[in-house]
Every structure is written in C-alpha cells, then in structure tokens.
Amino acid sequence: MTDNAYTNADVLRMETEVLQELEFDLNFPTCYSFMETYLKDIESNDDPTRMYTQFLLDRALLELPMQRYLPSILAAGALVAAWRRMNRFQPYI
Predict the structure, then answer these.
(1) 18-76, pLDDT tens digit by residue?
(2) Domain containing residue 40
(3) Is-contact 56 78, C-beta < 8 A?
(4) Dihedral, 9, 26, 60, 54 alpha carbons, nearest 10
C-alpha cells in the first residue's frame, strides 16, 4: 500500500508514538473493573457486600469451568449472589 516506503519497525514505532501521545490505556476489563462499575452505578457503599463479591470473584478465578464466562457476567452474578447472601436483594418489579 505504501510501496514499501516504510518497514514494519517504522509502522510499529509510529503506532507506539501515537498511543503514547494520546495516553491510551490498553488494559482489558476484568471482573473487578466490572464489579466496581456496577457498584458505582447502583451507588452502593456497602463494604461487606463488596468484600463478599470480591471473595466470590476470587473463587471463580480458581475454577476452570468458570473461565468460559465473560468478566461482566461473572461480576454481575457474584454481585447478585452476594446481595442474596446478605439479604439485600430486591428484584426489580
């Protein structure tokens, strides 16, 4: 496309410069980032629920069959399970 005007190394170097200049954060979302987002969205400051949700997510990371689920699904499921365990679950009607 550029008639070999640039090498692969030139393209990679320029991509790195652009990303650094734009301050891109290329981290992928984890269960914990989704959990934090969900807790912020529902305006929950309940530490016991947060800690139990984190415990459930830690346990999910240790179980190989749980790796097939998306991090967003794991975080939502752990949060609902924690709410139910803490008797704070109020389903939407």
Answers:
(1) 888 878 877 788 999 999 999 998 887 788 889 999 999 999 999 999 999 999 999 99
(2) 31-85
(3) yes
(4) 150
Question: Residue 12 domain-assigned?
Answer: no
How far apart, in whole angstroms, are the C-alpha atoms of residue 47 and residue 32?
14
DSSP one-letter string for the chain: --TT-S-HHHHHHHHHHHHHHHT---PPP-HHHHHHHHHHHTT---HHHHHHHHHHHHHHHH-GGGGGS-HHHHHHHHHHHHHHHTT------
Q: What is the rounded CA–CA span in Å between residue 11 and residue 17?
A: 10
The answer as to whether 17 is a domain residue is no
Number of domains in the chain: 1
Residue 30, class by beta-carbon neighbours within 10 Å (0-12 exposed, 13-18 middle, 19+ buried)?
A: middle
pTM: predicted TM-score of the whole model, two decimal places: 0.67
* CA geometry: angle 49, 55, 57, nearest 5 deg: 105
